[in-house]
Amino acid sequence: MAAASQEIADPATEATEDAYANASMQTFLPPESEGEDGWVWLQIKAETRRVAEEEPALASFLYATVLSHSSLVRCLSFHLANLLGSPTLLSALLYDLFVWAFSSAPPLLSAAVDDLLAARRRDPACRSFSHCLLYYKGFLALQAHRAAHLLWAVGRRPLALVLQSRVADVFGVDIHPAARVGRGVLLDHATGIVVSETAVIGNHVSILHHVTLGGTGKAACDRCPKVGDGVLIGAGATVLGNVTVGEGAKVGASAVVLMDVPARATAVGNPARLINGDDSPPAHEGHQMLDYDHNIWSDYVI
Fold first, then answer.
1. What single-letter DSSP state applies at residue 12?
2. pTM for this entry
3. Nearest to 187 by CA among 111, 118, 93
4. I need a surface site. Which of 63, 94, 202, 249 has the fewest CB within 10 A?
């Protein structure tokens, strides 16, 4: 069911979009770009036009979902609304809700663009920005969470919890609306990720599937992990309690972490033990060059 009538893109923009048609492998802004939001949106439309030409069976879907929209806000809102809508939670209502969220809080859209860039730069399986936007449920769940978090912050908590429930049902990702999540975050595969109420996730973090950031059951207030910038958490890892995973640290696959992990250390095993730490990390600029090993921080590779 269509969420709402779509806005028809201005044909005058097609020439500009065509200029990006052969640049889908580029993951950094060209010097002449005016901003990440507009540049990424042009990339997405150029990629989508090319796919529609190569695979006519997808042309209708791609037109309705991407090419008919005038902005990334409306495209993303439409796509999320149609995926999360149900017979009793209408997609038209969700579309208006997402447009409101991304339009009234510009940092949400900026964070979404950073999340797209993170997937494109860090995940070798991500072939294009449009691939992530359309099909990466980790990315989509995260954007829905950003809207739910805004609802939670402005006091519309029942609606935030309903949105959380729909995201869990549709994407298999359960992030409490109160949890705080930074920008440039990659939830890879994403199935089974659980992030509890008082958890905090920093910027430029990569989290694989079946990761839990939760409480131990022994505390009722601030009871969940705080994950620093540039952290990598491997598949199946569990981090419990009000513990800190320091900047640039790694948590190995299936590790069970019940203690603080120092910055740039690596935690592995059950219960987790520390196998590395470095008090003098290399110079960096905002983690922009982190790869999937995050090996700018450590000699250990998960």
1. G
2. 0.84
3. 118
4. 63
142's enclosing H/E stretch is helix 137-153
pLDDT in tens, 67-108: 999 999 999 999 999 999 999 999 999 999 999 999 999 999
Two tokens, residue 137: 């449920």
Tokens (6 digits) for 14 = 């097609």
Contact 43, 129 (CB under 8 A): yes
Chain centroid offset of residue 262 CA? 25
User: Of the candidates 167, 117, 110, which has an alpha carbon nearest to the alpha carbon of residue 140?
Assistant: 167
Q: pLDDT band at 216, cuts 50/70/90?
A: confident
Q: Residue 229: how many CB atoms within 10 A of its CB?
A: 19
Question: What pLDDT is stored for residue 291 in this prediction?
Answer: 58
The one-letter amino acid at 154 = V
The single-letter code of the amino acid at 232 is L
At residue 238, does pLDDT exceed 60? Answer: yes
Which of 202, 200, 197, 150 has its CA nearest to residue 178? 197
Instruction: Give the tokens for residue 35.
Output: 């901003």
- Burial (CB count within 10 angstroms: exposed 0-12, middle 13-18, buried 19+), residue 271: exposed
Q: How far apart are CA 94 and CA 113, in angstroms?
A: 20
